[in-house]
Amino acid sequence: MSDKRTELQDLGEFGLIEKLTNRFKTQVPSTLKGVGDDAAVIEINEEEVMLVSTDSLLEGIHFDLMYMPLKHLGYKAVMVNLSDIYAMNGKAEQITVSIAVSNRFPVEALEELYEGIQKACELYQIDLVGGDTTSSRAGLIIQVTALGRAKKKEVVYRSGAKENDLLVVSGDLGGAYMGLQLLEREKEVFKTNPEIQPDLDGYDYLLERQLKPEARKDVLAFLKELEVKPTSMIDISDGLASEIMHLCKASELNCTVYDEKVPIDGKTASTAIEFEIDPITTALNGGEDYELLFTVDQSDYEKVASNPHMTVIGHMTAKGSGIYLCDKAGSLVELKAQGWKHFE
Amino acid sequence: MSDKRTELQDLGEFGLIEKLTNRFKTQVPSTLKGVGDDAAVIEINEEEVMLVSTDSLLEGIHFDLMYMPLKHLGYKAVMVNLSDIYAMNGKAEQITVSIAVSNRFPVEALEELYEGIQKACELYQIDLVGGDTTSSRAGLIIQVTALGRAKKKEVVYRSGAKENDLLVVSGDLGGAYMGLQLLEREKEVFKTNPEIQPDLDGYDYLLERQLKPEARKDVLAFLKELEVKPTSMIDISDGLASEIMHLCKASELNCTVYDEKVPIDGKTASTAIEFEIDPITTALNGGEDYELLFTVDQSDYEKVASNPHMTVIGHMTAKGSGIYLCDKAGSLVELKAQGWKHFE
After folding, report:
1. Is the pTM of this model over 0.90?
2. Do residues B33 and B23 lie in contact, with contact meaning Cβ atoms separated by under 8 Å?
3. Could you report the per-residue pLDDT of B166-176, keeping only the tens digit for each?
């Protein structure tokens, strides 16, 4: 090792991945796309590809067992990965699940975790095909790899957006983040006084967004029904702003997003205000919504606008135009990605 | 959760996996083999399958950075997974690598780790196609998923052994375990007196077996050259005894292994004696040799015996005959798997 010491937080997660992997060259003919999209793309026959994506959830970093039921955790770990396959416009078919766990967990706890995984497999029609278990010195770690399949010509990459394409988002944003804020607040109350029962009545939607998210397999079905093929797509795991940046970078474009178009549920907005957070911030910089962000050709506007699960929030602009958030008054603010900063 | 509490160590790793996964049903037509072999087998076209295997290495459980150079660790993490693909008689083509790492590691340390991964990719002609990085509260975790490909009719499962088949092992066994013992001894010496330089001269082979193992891609090539297709196969990661048990269980057979046939390098044997360990124990219950254990038809005896990288160590017997180790004097001792017991 040289004497130079660069701290991980100086690079951030995406800078780090780029630094570590940019020297790797692709040498296997079947590798169509390696690092740099939601999933890797591997040719499996003349017409089809396999999609591979992997994600880890670590206790204390991604979840807190104080309020995350193990069954939901298992379910969520699967959703996080399926979401990446769907973001490539693929059909998820198999997963492997590796867990590292300390002795403090009894077998019954892991059975609960696997009940959630099983539920996800049943509902999304995928098979658990492998994995490993090992002991951990610090908490629970769940690592899922998802495998999917797609027709080669139907795969949607982050890089396919064209100038003037419409930027579309599924569902609504910021709910998972506000769910997390609520759970954190109640945890603090509980730590101060364990006698006080958590006050989470009426917040079901936000809690569900945080504790039991769904991957948007249904959105792919809607798009197929509408005969719309997105030109580019990414899943929203780190917050809208961060994902917009990825899409723009991969497609070598910029974009303008309209503040008031960003879909935010009423409960998310009112809870944000209760927490003195600007609702748009929960959508832009909150994470874990697992919605899809995609671009479509202008000619698909009517089709997309007709579907209640999709919202046009902006459009792609030429590189160099800047990536802007436009508010009601028409003033432009440059978008900055916050995303998750694990290393800080 | 019910009130019952079963400790993880009561089940052991394999019992735990079975308990957690036995309720899962295969529902996707392309899943040919799920949990229960070295890799999952997924149909990708009429003639071919994709093989998928995943394994994690955790600091403090699987490696100690006090003596494991990061570059070697990266290399080894890849080998561990390729070995599983080769154990299915497949060609490894892609890997994903996920790391969890705490702030105490500078970027330069991770670059070393990835240098080892890159070296492995180059030498074994595989592509790094994805992964993620996240922060960890406790040490370094490396999780690799390997993807391979094979002709459907060439895949070798654990379950294919027939009665009277010969049991064959590649390379020699116990070296990685003795390498670990040496490193642990020098670590203790160093902890007592940091002035004393480690005394590892002349132990290169054992250290290499532990720190920089190779997956036996070459053995598959030898078998192809010899026109021998194993009837069953497994890689030796947990020690010969444990792998024999897996093979017997999957093939619904028993076997007899001849003590003096088990290949043990001279340096492994002499070092074992120095440590007051019976050399056969290092082969049976040591781990991490990453050799291949397979069965072949009796008619292939001459071919296999002609290759210096393979040793016939026994033969398969009918179920109910017992799984025995036969010593020079001809007395039989029942084999018991020790393997790794992470949860103790």
Report:
1. yes
2. no
3. 999 999 999 99
